[in-house]
Amino acid sequence: MTTKDIFNFIQISDVISTSGQPTPFEFEVIADAGFQHVINLAMHDSDNALPEEGSYVAEAGMNYFHIPVPFDAPTIDHLQLFLKQMSILEGDKIWVHCALNHRISAFMQHYQRSVMHRTDDEIIPMVSSWEPSEVWQEFIKLDLKDD
């Protein structure tokens, strides 16, 4: 198994990859691929959440960061916290996930635009199976410059 086999895997850059919820074994695969940090945006009570996820990640030799984002209520504060955490870890290999890679897809749209300075044509697209709700469409349209 490779990281590309993890549910809804998307590679954003050489040092950033995203996915849906990894299994305990997949955290070992992620660590073996050289990733140093895992950021989880899913809620602790998501259907496929792992209650001991931080332990699995630590046992695999990586650092764990949890920024719980309610699926029906993402805010600019969540986004700013995420962008700050990504900035702190910049240059390291980071694996970012949520339950299905839907939250992450939206957050990464902002990251690619504001931090990586990618144009709309250069941005790695969201998970193709996801049709963002109105809440997420508004979140994707947030303009960080207005804050």
Automatic annotation (TrEMBL):
<dbReference type="Pfam" id="PF22741">
    <property type="entry name" value="PTP-NADK"/>
</dbReference>
<dbReference type="InterPro" id="IPR055214">
    <property type="entry name" value="PTP-NADK"/>
</dbReference>
<dbReference type="InterPro" id="IPR029021">
    <property type="entry name" value="Prot-tyrosine_phosphatase-like"/>
</dbReference>
<feature type="domain" description="DSP-PTPase phosphatase fused to NAD+ Kinase">
    <location>
        <begin position="18"/>
        <end position="118"/>
    </location>
</feature>
<keyword id="KW-0378">Hydrolase</keyword>
<dbReference type="GO" id="GO:0016787">
    <property type="term" value="F:hydrolase activity"/>
</dbReference>
<protein>
    <submittedName>
        <fullName>Protein tyrosine phosphatase (PTP) superfamily phosphohydrolase (DUF442 family)</fullName>
    </submittedName>
</protein>
